[in-house]
Amino acid sequence: MRLCVWDNQDASVFAWSFELETDHKPLTFLFSENKGINTNASSCVQRWALMLSSYNYTIRYRPGTGNCGDALSRLPVPFTDCNNTPQPADLVLVIYVFESNNSPVTAAQVRFWSNRDPVLSAVKHCVMTGDWSCILDSEEYKPYLCCRDELSVQSECLLWGRRVIMPKQGREKLVSELHSTHPGSVTMKAIARSHVWWPGIDSELESCVHRCDTCMQLSKSPAESPLSLWSWPFKPWSRIHVDFAGLFFGKMFLVVIDAFSKCIECSIMSTSTSAATIENLRVMFTTHGLDDVLVSDNGSCFTCQEFQEFMRLNGIKHVRSAPFKLASNGQVDRAVQIIKQGLRRVTQGALQTCLSRVLLGYRSRPHTVTGVSPAKLLMKRELKTRLSLVHPDISEAVDNKRQGQKYDHDCMVALHDFAVNDPVYVLNHGLGVKWLPGVFTSKEGTRVFCVKLKDGHTLRKRG
Ligand SMILES: [Zn+2]
Questions:
Q1: Which residues form a coiled coil (predicted)?
Q2: Residue 179 CA, ligand 1 centroid: distance in Å
Q3: Chain segment 321-341, per-residue pLDDT in tens
Q4: Which residues surround ligand 1, an ion (CB under 5 A)?
């Protein structure tokens, strides 16, 4: 990268103002008169920017063919064969002063190593001369060719931007230094990006972390295998998930959730023995029938022989979640949370009363997963609650029903209108036949009828 200033008229123009033309477009941004000095630029570029800041100028881009200042850079330069880059003579019996393992890597070391490294010394030469034509087209030079416009040399050290290009001899020590507090590879890369670079640094940093025994011992457990999601059953009460909640308020709660409808059943229990569990499940089965699959954890009351026999005799497939994989029975865990949270909020009345109110509220409101109330999915009808009374359609329906019942009753009463001497039967509440034959004689008020039986007795009966 060369900076050429050319003025056709008079050098004294620098005291006033001048126009700076360059055929290197990035310089128009780096040395822009309206911008501050880029702190990320290499130190030599920063020095140039500092020098130019003393002048009043306007910088603009002009292609090399039309830039007369470029003539300087087109002057022939003596050919330098990179293969003949002077190599240091082999040194014998020289005390190598940079061998201490604990000492940090210094610029003096980098300079020393850079001058001895054939690749880095060749690249340095190209950077200083600006002639990259002599560089060998081999793999080891490619990383430097890619960024050659951003390379610079400072104090005989090769820099890429602000980063020192570390010779091979110092790389291992630098990696150890970066990993001194055992950061992860991402952090190490971030730190290294501010200081050093060499081809393949990222993979070397990753390898360092993978090889570090301390990091391996302290690393998190590998990600768990994805949970096998239960499929949604096709019908209600086909698969139920069972677990215990508690002790809670001094009691155990047997919590059962239907995987299809998400309807929760819950029983308050004094103990969580298998016998008590079976009895409570039996009560639930009287309402909903037997299920096809029952999912539980590995609690002793579920794994014992008695419970297994209960499952077998009722034709229920018992599935137990994997040990230490509580999430595999997550549906009932959620149900347990719903019961616990509900009982913490609903506190008026006895525990069973509170539980009933919690369950009614849960079953009658739309479920977040299905969008339908559990009761609707389980029983194909919505539960009537106190809130249902606010709906006018239900009030009217109830009202109409009551009106209809009154009409039917009135009709029946109207039928009980007899003429004198009509044959009738009277219901006998005593011994003998159930209905006694007789004739209607009179009516007292609107609802009491007098009947004369065949044996001469007269009965007064309410119609
Ligand atoms: Zn480590």
A1: none
A2: 6
A3: 876 555 567 888 889 999 998
A4: 182, 212, 214-215
